[in-house]
């Protein structure tokens, strides 16, 4: 168990974009946008602190939406975080950022600001909205100037996978502090998500070479190997070895679901993982999170149920992405559809 516990907190659905891979509108394009009111936000905040006190964890918040900066009480929430000395990251859009806003975010204790780039210009703007690509790259510098770490995340699907190497080049050129990617989870959208396992492994090999080349040149961008199948790739290439001190039955890495993360939506619904469809385990306005964690969340910690991973020596370190498995096959414990390893 990690000392920090992360709360991915969606305070509003309000957004300047309607991305093609957005979970909020994946099942209903005409869905009414939800937002928490200030009283609900305070209740949620103290429910999270109670959780951490009970389970001896340190709280870390990922404040997001929609675009959280559009919430009328956004700055009041940040003041609450600052007053309690709690670190946080913002996951948002670039459109409302400028030097004044970024310095204000920094003054409230914002450590990182995460933006998204989901393709080169034409593809990204198709995913999100015209002009979004150039605006996103431009605001990386703005974030950096304020002393906040700029993070760029990419959602990979069959639609954009061949553009990932080019995205890496553009992100490095723009001066992003961190770059990472994760896979698209099928959610009823119109994207072709069906990469074959070999296609995905080849992408990891190409990206790994680019990462190493940039690192050898003294590049300051940190390449976060977020997708857990990186563990499998590095195990095969010798970069990762199972520690001799590893104890059977212990979980050391891999998917955070059930270990050190939950998601809270504007409706108060608590998800085991935002990327796992139907993973509602409670409601923060009605339930004590400390109790939800040891009761309803137990259904996501039955590691022997993993159809493929439970037979793999990397089970305690990888487990692929159960969200992608659920989105593809309807089962959280099904085999990751992009995992290329054969197990017996």
> Based on CA inertia axes, which overall geometry fits?
globular
Helix/strand-derived class? alpha/beta
In what range is the share of β-strand residues? 15-25%
According to DSSP, the number of beta strands is 10
Q: What's the total helix number?
A: 10
State the low-pLDDT regions, or none: none
- Write down the secondary-structure element order: EHEHEHEHHEHEHEHEEEHH
Task: Return the average pLDDT rounded to an integer.
Answer: 93
Structural commentary:
- The chain has 344 residues and is of the alpha/beta class.
- It has helices spanning 38-55, 74-83, 99-107, 121-127, 132-145, 164-174, 197-216, 229-237, 289-294, 322-329; strands spanning 4-10, 58-64, 88-91, 110-116, 149-156, 178-183, 222-223, 261-264, 269-271, 280-283.
- The longest helix has 20 residues, at 197-216.
Describe the secondary structure blueprint for this structure.
Elements: E1 4-10, H1 38-55, E2 58-64, H2 74-83, E3 88-91, H3 99-107, E4 110-116, H4 121-127, H5 132-145, E5 149-156, H6 164-174, E6 178-183, H7 197-216, E7 222-223, H8 229-237, E8 261-264, E9 269-271, E10 280-283, H9 289-294, H10 322-329
Parallel strand pairs: 1-2, 1-8, 2-3, 3-4, 4-5, 5-6, 6-7
Antiparallel strand pairs: 8-9, 9-10
């Amino acid at each position: 168990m990690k000392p920090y516990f992360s709360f991915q907190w969606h305070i509003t659905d309000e957004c300047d974009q309607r991305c093609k891979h957005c979970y909020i509108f994946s099942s209903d394009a005409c869905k009414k946008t939800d937002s928490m009111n200030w009283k609900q936000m305070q209740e949620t905040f103290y429910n999270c602190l109670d959780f951490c006190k009970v389970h001896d964890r340190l709280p870390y918040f990922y404040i997001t939406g929609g675009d959280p900066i559009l919430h009328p009480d956004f700055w009041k929430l940040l003041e609450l975080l600052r007053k309690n000395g709690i670190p946080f990251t913002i996951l948002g859009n670039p459109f409302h950022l400028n030097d004044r806003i970024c310095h204000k975010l920094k003054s409230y204790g914002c450590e990182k600001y995460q933006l998204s780039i989901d393709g080169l210009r034409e593809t990204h703007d198709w995913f999100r909205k015209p002009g979004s690509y150039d605006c996103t790259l431009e605001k990386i510098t703005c974030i950096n100037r304020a002393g906040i770490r700029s993070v760029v995340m990419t959602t990979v699907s069959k639609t954009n996978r061949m553009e990932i190497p080019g995205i890496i080049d553009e992100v490095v050129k723009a001066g992003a502090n961190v770059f990472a990617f994760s896979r698209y989870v099928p959610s009823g959208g119109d994207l072709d998500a069906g990469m074959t396992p070999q296609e995905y492994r080849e992408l990891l090999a190409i990206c790994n070479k680019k990462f190493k080349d940039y690192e050898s040149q003294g590049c300051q961008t940190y390449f976060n190997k977020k997708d857990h199948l990186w563990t499998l790739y590095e195990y095969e290439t010798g970069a990762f070895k199972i520690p001799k001190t590893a104890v059977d039955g212990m979980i050391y890495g891999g998917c955070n679901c059930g270990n050190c993360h939950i998601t809270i939506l504007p409706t108060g619904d608590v998800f085991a993982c935002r990327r796992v469809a139907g993973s509602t385990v409670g409601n923060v306005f009605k339930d004590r999170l400390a109790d939800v964690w040891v009761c309803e969340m137990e259904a996501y910690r039955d590691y022997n149920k993993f159809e493929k991973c439970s037979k793999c020596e990397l089970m305690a370190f990888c487990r692929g992405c159960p969200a992608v498995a659920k989105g593809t096959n309807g089962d959280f414990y099904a085999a990751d559809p992009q995992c290329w390893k054969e197990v017996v």
